[in-house]
Design goal:
420 residues; Rossmann fold; four-stranded antiparallel beta sheet; 11 helices; 17% strand
Length: 420
């Protein structure tokens, strides 16, 4: 029987993208309707279910690896933080499940947030599979504050014969254009569990006797293709990137840089013909000098724009709070997270004339690329539903590095091109 990788809380496919490319069979369990639709459009095998109710016995003898990125309201720093009071209950549920005692029903009645105990669900599956000598390996990921819970899981897994590593990793160290820090658990029955060697650093390293040094962190501009001859910069296109048109954010319509009649629109033509720019106003005297307006190949010079985009320095603001992370386009983004009005991620440019700061809300397509999903990933749902999926997912490039040793892959820095 061919065994599969079981992906709990599979989301839109952050863990799935590398496994799917490698031809490794994966079964994802997910409850969110739109994440399931995205997975279906991406060709990923999915069971839409409430993980807390789904039986574990159906997977016995069929699982080679278990993945989990459970929601962790008990460790969330957002909102009213009522879930923080549930942490002891989550730890108790994990201990009880590891011992074969299912006390979730009684513990749930004491929880301030009914979602808190979902962080204990991976142990329910692990305990059931352990009786049949499965799985061979485990990989789990969540926000840094969850590390104490991962350490509890690690202690139990070691008592079952696993080698386990837990710690905090920065996604930027693995080629993700985002300094997203995450708590990681890696466990294996067959090999020593260690974190993957980083491929990137905040400052590029020179080659040494031990081989090539790490490359510089990937910038947002590099990930989005800005500055290349075949890609626009954000000020040129009101849609904010290749293939973009105006993409309103859930909380309101997207602010254009100039009046609608001034905007250019990037459109993708038939395969192999590139991206073309159709300008609605080519600048004073353009028609007299060059004839009527025309579409321009991506490699051709852009027409005149009233906002003079080439003179702007763009930065990405992670939310609309006073303590928001603000990073220049030639740096990695801060951690991207969505799902609340306070988490509106916007591009900002300082004006050249001393006026107000101009801002454009990030598009779902841009956010997906900054999470290292493929450019053509088939996101489903409205903009809010897409942003929620993207913000909750593990970056596929980070997932690839975490999974590669367990599935016999030798991953290099050149694998998983951001524009693939």
């Amino acid at each position: 029987m061919t065994r599969s990788v079981l992906d709990l809380f599979a989301g839109p496919g952050g863990w799935s993208v590398p496994l799917h490319r490698w031809g490794i069979r994966e079964v994802g369990l997910e409850w969110d309707e739109w994440a399931c639709r995205t997975r279906a459009a991406a060709g990923l095998l999915t069971i839409r279910t409430d993980i807390a109710l789904y039986p574990t016995w159906v997977f016995t003898g069929r699982v080679v690896g278990l993945i989990a990125s459970p929601p962790c309201q008990a460790w969330s720093m957002a909102g009213k933080r009522l879930g923080l009071l549930d942490q002891p209950l989550v730890h108790q549920a994990v201990a009880d499940l590891a011992a074969g005692r299912d006390t979730r029903a009684s513990l749930l009645t004491a929880c301030r947030d009914e979602r808190s105990l979902l962080a204990a669900e991976p142990m329910r599956y692990l305990q059931a599979l352990h009786r049949s000598g499965e799985p061979e390996w485990v990989a789990m990921e969540e926000v840094p504050h969850v590390l104490p819970l991962w350490k509890q899981y690690a202690e139990i897994l070691r008592s079952w014969g696993y080698s386990v590593w837990t710690g905090i990793l920065n996604a930027a160290d693995y080629g993700v254009p985002q300094t997203r820090r995450r708590a990681i658990l890696l466990a294996s029955r067959t090999r020593t569990a260690i974190p993957p060697p980083p491929t990137h650093a905040s400052v590029a390293e020179p080659e040494s006797l031990f081989g090539p040094g790490r490359e510089r962190w990937v910038s947002m501009a590099a990930a989005l293709g800005w500055g290349a001859t075949d890609r626009p910069v954000p000020t040129v296109c009101a849609g904010g990137g290749p293939g973009g048109g105006p993409e309103p954010f859930p909380s309101g319509s997207r602010k254009a840089l100039t009046d609608a009649r001034d905007r250019g629109t990037w459109t993708r033509r038939k395969a192999g013909t590139g991206i073309f720019l159709a300008s609605r106003r080519e600048g004073p005297g353009y028609a007299e000098q060059h004839g009527p307006r025309e579409n321009r190949p991506a490699g051709a010079p852009a027409p005149t724009f009233t906002t003079e985009p080439h003179r702007r320095s763009w930065s990405l603001r992670s939310n609309n709070q006073t303590n928001a992370t603000v990073r220049r386009a030639d740096e990695p983004a801060g951690t991207l997270f969505f799902g609340h009005r306070a988490n509106e991620c916007v591009w900002e440019a300082e004006p050249t004339d001393g006026g107000a700061v101009e801002s454009i809300r990030i598009t779902a397509a841009e956010a997906g690329l900054l999470q290292t999903f493929p450019a053509a990933y088939p996101w489903q749902g409205n903009k809010g539903q897409q942003f929620s999926q993207i913000g909750n997912a593990i970056p596929p490039r980070l997932a690839a590095h975490l999974l590669a040793p367990h599935v016999g892959r030798n991953l290099t820095r050149d694998d998983f091109d951001l524009a693939a």
